[in-house]
Amino acid sequence: MYAAPSIQKLLDELERLPGIGPKSAQRIAYWLLNGDRATAQRLSEAIIEMKDSVHFCKRCFNYAENDLCEICASTKRDPSVICVVSEPREIPPIERTGTFNGCYHVLGGVLSPLEGVGPDDLHIKELIERISAENVVEVIVATNPDVEGETTASYLARLIHPLGVRVTRLASGLPVGGDLEFADEVTLGRAIESRRTL
Question: What confidence category does residue 173 fall into, taking pLDDT thresholds of 50, 70 and 90?
Answer without folding.
Answer: low
